[in-house]
Give the backbone structure.
Amino acid sequence: MIHLLKILTWFIDMRINFLFLSLIIIFSITACDSPQPKSVEKVALDVNSTELESLNSKSADTLENNEIKAGVDYHSFSNPNEVVVNHISLDLNVDFDTKVISGTAKLKYKKQTPDANTLILDSKDLTINRVSANGDDLPFELDTGESFLGSALTISLPDNGKELTIEYATSPSASGVQWLTPAQTAGGKHPFLFTQAQATHARSFIPLQDSPKVRVTYDATIRTPKELIAVMSASNDPQAERDGVYEFNMPQAIPSYLIALAVGDLQFKAMGERTGVYAESGILDAAAAEFEDTESMLIETEKRYGPYSWDRYDLLILPPSFPFGGMENPRLSFITPTVIAGDKSLVSLIAHELAHSWSGNTVTNATWRDLWLNEGFTTYLTYRIMELVYGEDRYNMEAVLGYQDLAAAVDSLDAKDTMLAIDLRGRDPDDVFSNIPYEKGALFLRELEQKVGRDNFDVFLTQYFEDYAFQSITTDEFLEYLSNTLIAQYPDKLDIERINEWVFSTGVPEGAPKPDSNAFTVVDTARNGWLAGDVLATDIDTEKWTVHQWLYFLNNMPEQLSLEKMSALDSVFALTESKNNEIAHSWLLMSVKNWYQPAHTRLFSYLTSIGRNKLVRPLYKELAKTEDGKGLAKRAFAKAKDGYHPLTVKANEKYVQ
Ligand code: BES
Ligand code: ZN
């Protein structure tokens, strides 16, 4: 009996010990977890593909009252919480005759739970020929439901295994690839191809988990016609022999939207120790001269915000159909040629794409709702870099112009789309693209900077980039981090209510900073005097005006000007002939609003030779407001359409119906 009792007490003891031990383990896991910035995979929930499909078939209005789940990527079918892909090896052939990229993608994956047995990937307009592991076929299913998100590719995984191979081919109309004929290039002799993956287009040229919270390393073998070279967002070798087979390696883990490829008759020119430019030979020297300050920008940014993590920083100058100003593909930003102005007036674009090497590529938005973490921080850094390299006047002028863009965006957008943490459920991020995440985000950071002091704010930013390096982060995680760091450090200067107002309210908060520039005072005086009839255009002393002053002069003209006034401006300042694409844009917009016909030939050639959406879209939109305007828009669009990128076609076709 005593024996039995002894066993019983021993048993109870053990249970208590075990309980105690478990508690200690649980406690220590949470305790060592909490002060660290959490990686997104640990906290994120995912919606399953059925949920996502039903969500995207509903209108945004029906969704409004449901709570948004922070960290859920509403724009990917993939299941990284169950199985996560961490490396991709590509072996691809680029065929210009059929406009098809085909070959294999070998995916290395890791099961997050022991019983996970399916891998779900994103795909869009891909033909999947075979999925295999170690030579054995793996069962797969490609959803038929096609939306702007493409279709889920569900693969059954073997019990043991770490990688699989997908044989696939892209469609000639892949939304993330543009195929250009020789006539659409600067040289006119060879075709050109480039990809543009952000936000949800990587899936149109690679089957993968197309979510910014999933990071992969990659390597690639790209096979092209022999006379062309391939470059990627990876280590590039400018000396590589032109033999039609090119090897790449990206050893740092990046989100899928940063995977990029271009193929063309490209040459390379060094600009500095770590910086250089790839372009067609006809524009190589002009590009290298225009962007010669890139190396200084890199050095200055490092001094202020910590070391550059990506080894080299090169630029690739694309043909004019590139739909964006720039794209921050790591190690190799893709750049529109429309900023080669001859006077470095538009190089803030380079500062912007370079800045993404910190804000965006190193610390990445976890979902597209959090885009402002990429673009707002980058826009803030852009202003700062411009000041470091070109001085305070330039900083002030660019900040005022940015502020005016913000005011225009707030005026023209639906209130709900003026929030930083925007509700994108059921919506294509391409359709919601605006200046809000850029300029409102930057202004928010400017307010924080002013409250805690510039140097202190820079210390915070540098630490933030370091703490979250190579991680993807949600708005909520950022706010928690901010509470634990800057707000805790300066409780008398910052408060969370104000910060929440910036992030979760519409419009611009009352009392927000308002950038100001002395250099614009003379411009206001000149414009006002001329509008009042007190000063003739010939008497305005514009000799020393910078491009920014010109932009400020034009952008702040009244909506309606008489033909006489338009002609006076044009004859004195030759605006229709301006070689600066931004000035030309502002002037052409005025010309549409006032139906100033002498500018129509230039307008037509502008619309048919540039595909950068930011420059052409406002013109199409304005033209569509009148019958005559629509006629001109239709003619220009019909001529240009074949040469426009799919995104530019999609954004503008509604104006020419
Ligand atoms: N990453 C963006 C371009 C982008 C954003 C593509 C969202 C697709 C979805 C790039 O860094 C950018 O912001 N480009 C701007 C530059 C400008 C603000 C200086 C552009 O293209 O106009
Ligand atoms: Zn950007």
Remarks:
- Residues 198-199, 324-328, 349, 352-353, 356, 375, 433, 438, 614 surround BES (ligand 1) (CB under 6 Å).
- The radius of gyration is 27 Å.
- Residues 320 and 610 are 5 Å apart (CA to CA).
